[in-house]
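Hi support team,

I'm filing this because I wasn't sure whether my run with WTA finished correctly. The job status page said complete, but I'd like someone to confirm that the output block is well-formed before I use it downstream. Pasting the exact inputs I used:
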Amino acid sequence: MKCTCIIYWNVSSRVWSIALFRPSNKGELMTPDNSKGRYPPSDEYRRTAFLKSADEYKKIYAESMKDPVKYWEKQADLIDWYSKGWKDAFTWNKKTNEFTWFKGGKLNVSYNCLDRHVRNGLKNTAAIIFQGEEDNDVRIYTYGHLLSEVERFANVLKKRGVGKGDRVAVYLPMIPELPITLLACARIGAIHSVVFAGFSSEAIYNRVADCSAKVMVTSDGSYRAGKKIDMKGKVNEVLEKETAVESVIVVRRTGADVVMERGRDFWWHDEMVKVPAKCEPEVMDAEDPLFLLYTSGTTGKPKGMLHTNGGYLVGAYSSYRYVFNYNPGQVYWCTADIGWITGHTYILYGPLSFGATTLMFEGVPSYPENDRFWQVAEKWGVDIFYTAPTALRMIRKTGDEWIKKHDLSSLKMLASVGEPIDADVWKWYHSVIGGGRCPISDTWWQTETGSIMIAPMTGAFDLKPGSAMKPLPGIEAGVFKEDKTPCGTGESGNLYLNRPFPSLARTIWNDHAKFVETYWSAFPGHYLTGDGARVDEDGDFWLLGRVDDVISVAGHRIGAAEIEAALISHPAVAEAAVVPVPDEIKGEAIYTFVTLKDGFTDSEELKKALVNHVRNVVGPIATPKTIQITGGLPKTRSGKIVRRILRKIAGGSRSDELGDTTTLIDPAVIDALIKGRN
Ligand code: WTA
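And here is everything the job wrote out:
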């Protein structure tokens, strides 16, 4: 604990005296303002926050809107540049939807996350605390040690011929070698592309092939809830097909027997000792790509979102500072997987560029028992905790006694991401996990936006359960009707971000036309988020979920079209339509309607085979909850499947609740679908 020491002249006793002040740690409770249903932060919390009042926020926000470019240039001052050689901090060609931020500025992201902290006195401060699935499996990386590991691995990559602009595909579990790999790529200017460890070999192949990765980094296997999972075997399957991959670096994690191909596959631990210890950071242009991350959209093909060095880092740093109120010495824990954007920005780049201590957890909330999160939080004295509503719903279901077993008094701030958090779960999170003391930041953002866009700045706002509240400074968000006129107070519509900001993805890898069509064609000059929202009388945002055919299962985005394509690739399937259904724990689950080719008949076995087929093609995260075999699907005269109706049928609606069915080519199909509902 930090103390302040004051030496003063004691007038009454006429001696010099010393007074020691410790910050109070009373754990002041937040007192809900019942008249308005709001939760103001306690004074104790407010004192430690970056923004301390609504007025302070309003002033900064208004300034940022008056001159967004100037505002972002000020944010860019917070990171280290070799040179700020840009002429125009922002350029935007509205015709081609190409835009740049800080182009001509030179920096290195790994320098910003490591070297500058080592130089500024954080060499022996913990950068990453790794907590393995087994409790005694712990590794602590100080900033100094992490830098050495990153330098060595950067040299391993160089030895394998990786240079500036080359793609490195990363298929690793949540172990420290994962952030080390990403920072090593950033150090030498290679573009990393992480594939979530839960994807199947076909999904890995699509991503590796799309970006023509030169090197892959993987492990022999991973641990999940006490079981060993194969990883290298999947990579071997991927590499049976034609790819650009020349070498594979393999981390030994589980010790499983794996097939290594001579000349192509190399063990991490062998290579690390063969290379020089030092590796100077490459000088990168702000607009050089930093990474690709694939995300699901409305077509079958995942999109490789491209993020740049300068803009992304400025967004990651600046948002981390506004939202999490990190104070030196605290332990910050984001429970996401680095395979998703939340892990990229808020386990790795945000906290490390800020000089924070970030906890990285390999396990799951329910292993070995249902209190695992709280046991870890207590063990490490976690101050700031960031998770997803799906995890909260699951934990709540197992019973509060698991939480009450632990002393969670170190927690000061809580946050949520990935899906709307409903008021009920919010209040439970606040009272049971946060002990009534901790404000909650419901953070809205996307893979594309790179960093948090809308979220309460918790020292400044009186919180409203269920609302993500206000955009961060520099971000202008708006809700518009289909005709592009602004929605009135309380009216639902499409959420747009009104112009490009530094951390927004620049393009889709190899497909700029799709980038333009997906995000910029609906309302030129405005970025289409694909989410519905409304704004209340106080100007606070309420997020309403996706308005397109993207399903959010346990907070993971999965394109309906990706699952449909997988189903159609099965020999028995003629046609498939996939829709979300509400799910108590996962938020949404996958409901599939399938028509069969002639010669195939409905059976439990076939349904099981179809479920397995989807798991194999896309991965276990896309496992359908329900397969309904049907004779036909509702279609318009032009042959379009009407998903609006299928959503309602899957959700249990009666035939008179389906809305307009007159445009269907064969309305009779509806009765059959309702009868055949599982
Ligand atoms: C949803 C995750 C409501 C939203 C960072 C968005 C949310 C998609 C929230 C992006 C939130 C994320 N409230 N919905 N606080 N956060 N979403 O790309 O539908 O994996 O479009 O990025 O998650 O998911 P992605």
